[in-house]
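User: Predict structure, ligand adenosine-5'-triphosphate.
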Amino acid sequence: MEWGQMTLEQWGDLQTQLYETVGENNYRNWIEPLEFRGIEDSGIAVFHAPTNFFGSYVSQNFGDLLLAQMSRRDPDVRRLAFRVGQGDSSAERRPSAAAEAQPQMQQDARSEPRSESRRSSDILPSAPLDARFTFDGFVVGKPNELAHAAARRVAEGGQVTFNPLFLYGGVGLGKTHLMHAIAWELRARMPELNVLYLSAEQFMYRFVQALREKRMMDFKELFRSVDVLMVDDVQFIAGKDSTQEEFFHTFNALVDQNKQIVISADRAPDEIKDLENRIRSRLQSGLVVDLHPTDYELRLGILQSKVDSYRNLYPGLHIEDGVLEFLAHRISTNVRVLEGALTRLFAFASLVGKPITMDLVQDSLADVLRASERKISIEEIQRKVAEHYNIRLSDMIGPKRVRVFARPRQVAMYLCKQLTRRSLPEIGRRFGGRDHTTVMHGVKRIEELRHQDGQIDEDIELLRRALEA
Ligand SMILES: Nc1ncnc2c1ncn2[C@@H]1O[C@H](COP(=O)(O)OP(=O)(O)OP(=O)(O)O)[C@@H](O)[C@H]1O
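Assistant: Predicted complex:
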């Protein structure tokens, strides 16, 4: 290291001044234990701090003052660095080239500790990131465009504008994918940032482990020294009092330091039961965005993008027109199921050496298609049919046998047979305790009428479509 102009002696003078400015207690606790190492030629004043937490605290609370006083004496001083560990600062302890190349980061890091040990992955391992979960692999549509835009903004790593970013949505809608994409992007753009991604469950596990091993100071220090904290599935900590407490303190400490936090959950903060109110309100204090259930266009887009990525794996595999549209229409539950179906189709087709046709879809995905069928209930059918024929529900189910009630009743029975998996006796029971032979007769009668009476046929088609919508 080349030393700047400031000498140890001058540091001694400065300490006396700091003593007067910060007061005896602060001075003894926070300034005196610092060891001045010198000034690197890049204008970084380097201090040795006893621990990362210590460095972080000094940086946060006295960094501006220290920097102002130092740069008054030596205009070359532009930043402070608090490092832990043994030995002299050496070349490998300098901020990385990437950090130097990032003007924004330099400004952020002005008074921050950026030691190698702080970045060391064995001290603060992030949960592994899935290589497929990048922004490139994320298909944007109406239901997720806001969440995607917010995630992009955070991934730029600029000034923290909303804190935390809270992403929520139902199962398999892309929360984890977006979180990983943010982490990948930040790592690529700013490798010097300490980005920690983990699930709320892992947070709890580490907390409990720290308690058990009596290493709470280390735990606090580690979590307070990250630059970006990302916690997935935060609903997990609901009802777990001490984990919530610790999460709350970690959260506050990082927000106070203007460090970005990204949280995901399966529901909105005010819908998470057994969450302390103070945490709930913290989680709501930034930007809360939800991933809406996918629509047909988004599902089709996702399928098309997955097919593109499969092209290398299965070259020459042909997909019949209409297959993707059919899947996007039929599998509307979640993207994970949709992806799984496509993977299975490709594997199946390549095994049997055939193109992906509608027949192959029916053969290889029968269970998935069955499971994703919308379940239509007997009550729903009865209600819709009663509405359609403008009669009361009680008359449809009741004993009256006049045609104005009997015909709609038979139509409803017929639809129950067609659209549900209920047995004839079960259907009979739900129509005022009628016998299964009555149901059978009704279903037969409607089958006949569909051939003879265009109006009935049309009514049934209309009702079926409304019920399946
Ligand atoms: N818009 C999208 N574009 C591409 N892939 C997507 C999209 N949304 C979801 N996926 C994929 O769907 C799968 C499930 O997504 P992810 O794991 O992110 O869901 P999640 O919302 O975190 O669900 P969970 O609540 O179950 O954890 C992943 O393989 C992901 O890549």
